[in-house]
What does this fold into?
Amino acid sequence: MIVADLLVTGIAEAATLARGPIPRTRASAGELTRVPNAAVAVRDGRFAWIGPERRASRSVRLRPGGARVDAAEGTLVPGLVDAHSHVLFAGDRAFELELKARGMTYPEIARRGGGILSTVRATRRASPERLLEETTVRLRAMALAGSTSVEVKTGYSLTPRGEVELLRLIPRLAQRTGLRLVPTFLGAHAIPPEAHGNGDAYVDRLIRQALPVIARERLARFVDVFCEPGFFSVRTSERLLRAAMSLGLGVKVHADEFVRSGGARLAARLGARSAEHLLAANTDDMVALARAGVTAVLLPITAFASTASRRSPARELVDAGVPVALGTDCSPNSWVESMPLAIALAVHGGRLSPAEALTAATVNAAHAVGLEDAGRVEVGRPADFAIFPVPDADHLGYRFDVRPNVVFRQGKPVSSRTLRQ
Ligand code: ZN
It folds into this structure.
């Protein structure tokens, strides 16, 4: 008999994602392992029992003072994992929307002094306390939408020291919000204005002045680079990522978002953890990613927000055998905290099945950010889960932006009250 701290009953369907390979590809990408009429028990912040509710009374006893939650015939899924965010920034770029609406592209807006460099100015000016406050609000919104783990990239300071200081804020954000945050160093997000277009010289400084500190103090899990014409070339990106790998850091690539320029092939050549965006990747790139076992992190909201004619090639990547993961890409360019919206757009725009999209937002997203014990409802794993007011897990992809009734992180309820500082 299991003595539980928390017992959840009244679950119409639990999508546990407990069985199958990690990451999930091809047919296994749609395997959710559904338990109808389920109950879930939690002990010491971890899942202790999952099964049909009718068997719960024989297997689980609630300890005196333990909590009972009625899922009200909703659907329980693993806490969502946002595998790609630029949530750590100051200010906003609402003024750009009119330019976008008139058909201006992101590189054109950037050349006019807008885009990323205006966020860099705002972030450099902001005090650490201000940055913590503004980012905490966004992370709380992510948690209330069902995310329990979030990858957080730096990239709006663009000096070796400033970028390291941004990394130092991430554990403080995790403490404030109770979320599991994965820090990624994206010092090479853009060439800083004072480098006058010399990306190579700036990357040299990142390699000499930032990477050793990051590795020594374990400030980041991954190093990422914006590999795109006008930002960092394939050669320069490779130099930075190889330096990161030699220090034991994982690597990721912002690849082939605007044009096909070799980012996906670079990720495959290096055996990177992930290649991200991939809007312009072709079939050869997909085959290379599949062979190298690189996870594709797709950002269908960005595809929608920046160029409506583009869609994330989610269907093509799954069919090519590439593990697909999802993120919000929350940034001042596409400000969104909702993983359920990313799931819906991966279905409606990216042509994934609802089950494939949920896999991409849980177990595959966890793999993409190196959290091998997240994204699944399985005995012994951290009890991170969300209960949505829908009859089964397919409704997450079917409906747009459905919101959970409750979210739990390590067996504790996440709410606007518990998230308050
Ligand atoms: Zn990004």
Residues 84, 86, 254, 329 surround zinc ion (CB under 6 Å). The first strand starts at residue 2 and ends at 15.
